């Protein structure tokens, strides 16, 4: 029984497990803060509509989007616990990748259309030098 192919969800990236056997594919983190960073950095703002567990189950980024310092060990098939993807060629040049983010507070606000929205205030504050591996 063969498993289905996995595809990288980064815009413009065509990596998949069927044709790119030398690449690793990584699930989005379950942690909301880190998941938010991954969404921002890869430029897939449409993914903000989903909770982290949905992204963890259904979306992956390939190893091309992580700097060597983000990998645990030499094989490139396991990420450090606080790994952040920062290599994206097709993301708008005006967007600077986030290295880390701390959600300081959230406020529920009503916008002009009487729809509820959440305002998120951010502060850079995570340490990505952690050498422990993640539970992906």
From TrEMBL:
GO terms (BP aspect): regulation of transcription by RNA polymerase II
Segments forming domain THAP-type: 1-88
GO cellular component: nucleus
Annotated transmembrane regions: none
Keyword field contains Glycoprotein: no
GO molecular function: DNA-binding transcription factor activity; RNA polymerase II cis-regulatory region sequence-specific DNA binding; zinc ion binding
Pfam families with a match to the protein in the record: THAP
SMART domains: DM3 (SM00692), THAP (SM00980)
Superkingdom of source: Eukaryota
Keywords: DNA-binding, Metal-binding, Zinc, Zinc-finger
This protein's name: THAP-type domain-containing protein
Organism of derivation: Ignelater luminosus (Cucubano)
């Amino acid at each position: 029984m063969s498993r289905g192919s996995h595809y990288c969800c980064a815009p413009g990236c065509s990596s998949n497990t069927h044709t790119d056997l030398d690449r690793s594919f990584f699930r989005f983190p379950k942690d909301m803060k880190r998941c938010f960073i991954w969404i921002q950095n890869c430029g897939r703002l449409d993914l903000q509509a989903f909770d982290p567990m949905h992204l963890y189950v259904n979306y992956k980024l390939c190893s091309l989007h992580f700097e060597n310092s983000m990998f645990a060990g030499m094989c490139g098939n396991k990420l450090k616990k606080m790994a952040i993807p920062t290599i994206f060629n097709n993301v708008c040049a005006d967007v600077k990748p986030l290295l880390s983010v701390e959600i300081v507070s959230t406020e529920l606000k009503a916008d002009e259309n009487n729809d509820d929205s959440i305002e998120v205030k951010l502060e850079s504050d995570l340490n990505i030098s952690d050498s422990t591996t993640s539970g992906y």
